[in-house]
Amino acid sequence: MPSTVPPHAAPAESRVRARTRRAILTAAASLLARNRGATLAEIAEAADVGRTSLHRYFPDRESLINAVIQDSASVMSQAIQEARLDDDDPVQTLRRLVATMFDVGDHLLFLFSDPGVRATFENLSEQGARTDAVARLIERGCAEGVFDSKVSSAWIESVFWALIYAGCDAVHKGRLPRHQALNSVLRSLENGIRIKGAGEEPDV
Amino acid sequence: MPSTVPPHAAPAESRVRARTRRAILTAAASLLARNRGATLAEIAEAADVGRTSLHRYFPDRESLINAVIQDSASVMSQAIQEARLDDDDPVQTLRRLVATMFDVGDHLLFLFSDPGVRATFENLSEQGARTDAVARLIERGCAEGVFDSKVSSAWIESVFWALIYAGCDAVHKGRLPRHQALNSVLRSLENGIRIKGAGEEPDV
DNA sequence: TCATTATGGAACATCAATGATCTATTTTGG
DNA sequence: CCAAAATAGATCATTGATGTTCCATAATGA
């Protein structure tokens, strides 16, 4: 069976449409992350398509926003899967995860840039159990006594996302080169949630 | 000379107007923090004033937004001053500061909720040297070797704001009671930026 | 009490983003 | 090369937020 074609994916979108759709979603996420009030015209231009085309794919603004949220969520979800959170020891896994999150920084910045967007995102996370893998990883770490037990695992997760966001933001704004931001996040994060035996240097 | 009345503050606003203005600014900050697209009508309602009145104080939306930014910035600035960042040792001072920031959480959440707002805020910070006191405190801490020297002081400041924000957000959303959020932030922060000799328990 | 000041609400004009429709072109895939 | 699919661009109606004006009331404070 073909690997990229889902068996029962009814009509299946043409390659052209798929590419266009992707262009729109990507451009939208990137633009909206910086300017939540971005006009549909601006988004279309950024995606290098006519405003009409954008409308053909997403009837109204709301459906576009939702689609971008969905898409960003699934991009992150997939990235998380590929990070294999159930392997190794939590520390090593966490490092892989952070690096992975940096790779999808644009989507992450978008999902966290707006309270409303973020709420919607977290909502469908609850239902669909998507980024829950992260929560599970952290809880596992707590259970194994590898993470700080003086604070709730929920809080640790908050810290995790907050630092990732700060790191991506720093890179995005050009305040730090990627590798340095990555190291900084790792360092602040690991020491922050007090990993036992994290004596020195996560480094490169 | 009177303590609360600036000597040359030309016309001086009537008490009533001052109160109304404050009501609007406060309500606006609180509302806009949660919903950046909040309508002027909604803001007026939240402030418990007529939309007309709101317009009387702030001719257009932009001037309102700017005023709210200015106000929130000055509220934070004042709070920071009262935290006396130049006293004590950096650690103790940092703790005071975090607690202080929790007190002005609504304003902080507003200033950081929107990329655009945040940019404007950081812009006038540079010029007016307002929240720079925080940066100075951190740099002092780094200079004294009290904070982690493996990362830039700029990054440490990022971590500081990121964790404060996460804490305020948790409180605001009801995920944590205030005192617990405060302790969590302190703990994660201090261990995160690796304060030497911070063996245990900041606690209550 | 009374003049002043501040307010609320209705009513209206404006405007920009939105979304819908149509047509001419281009691109795709066979 | 050709039919089908996809697109861009122009045009137009709609709509909701905005900003403005006017007037009647209410609060203030001397």
Helices and strands in order, then pairings?
The structure is a homodimer of 204-residue chains.
Chain A: H1 15-34, H2 40-47, H3 51-57, H4 61-82, H5 90-103, H6 105-113, H7 115-128, H8 132-143, H9 153-172, H10 178-192
The structure holds a DNA duplex (30 and 30 nucleotides).
Domain HTH tetR-type (chains A, B): 18-76
InterPro entries (chains A, B): Homeodomain-like_sf, HTH-type_TetR-like_transc_reg, HTH_TetR
Protein name (chains A, B): HTH tetR-type domain-containing protein
Describe what this molecule looks like in 3D.
Chains A, B: InterPro entries: Homeodomain-like_sf, HTH-type_TetR-like_transc_reg, HTH_TetR. Chains A, B: Residues 18-76 form the HTH tetR-type domain. Chains A, B: Residues 39-58 bind DNA. The structure is a homodimer of 204-residue chains. Chain A is mainly α and 204 residues long. Chain A folds into two domains: 13-59, Arc Repressor Mutant, subunit A (Orthogonal Bundle), CATH 1.10.10; 65-192, Tetracycline Repressor, domain 2. Chain A has helices at 15-34, 40-47, 51-57, 61-82, 90-103, 105-113, 115-128, 132-143, 153-172, 178-192. Chain A is elongated, with a radius of gyration of 19 Å. The interface between A and B is large, with 36 and 37 residues. The structure holds a DNA duplex (30 and 30 nucleotides).
